[in-house]
Amino acid sequence: QVQLVESGGGLVQAGGSLRLSCAASRITFGINRMGWYRQGPGKQRELVASISSGGATNYADSVKGRFTISRDNVKNTVYLQMNSLKPEDTAIYYCNSKRFEFEYWGQGTQVTVSS
Questions:
Q1: Which of 24, 37, 43, 87 has a 20 to 30 A CA-CA distance from 74?
Q2: pLDDT, tens digit (0-9, with 9 covering 90-100), for 26-56
Q3: Closest to 94 in 3D by CA, of 104, 107, 78
Q4: Is residue 97 within 8 Å of residue 24, measured between CB atoms?
């Protein structure tokens, strides 16, 4: 069974940084598009950033210039470096893996940014 396990969430003050990791197992990691989504209180889940198998990246406008997504195809891990965090970044962050009709989600990791 495919597993995506996130880590790195926590409580941080505004302006601080966190680095999220998502370790994948039982998938052909290198050919999958990987992404980070988030769901804030009372909000719908939204795409934060994605990275293709070839390394092309895409970011939500709200995080451009502050967040960086990267992947290590040897470690089967995708990262989200989050800098200059704002209270509005508070959410549960989910790792996502997608290839054609096959899509998988992690269990989520909480990020809380205090003002």
A1: 37
A2: 878 778 999 999 999 999 999 999 999 999 9
A3: 107
A4: yes
With b for 16 or more beta-carbon neighbours within 10 A and e for fewer, the 4-21 pattern comes to bebebbeebeeeeebebb
Query: How far apart are alpha carbons 89 and 92 in whole angstroms?
Result: 9
Q: What is the pLDDT of residues 83-110, one digit of tens each?
A: 999 999 999 999 999 998 899 999 999 9
- Alpha-carbon distance of 36 to 106, in angstroms, equals 10
Mean pLDDT of 49-64: 97
From residue 99, alpha-carbon distances to 27, 35, 67, 83 in Å are 10, 11, 23, 29
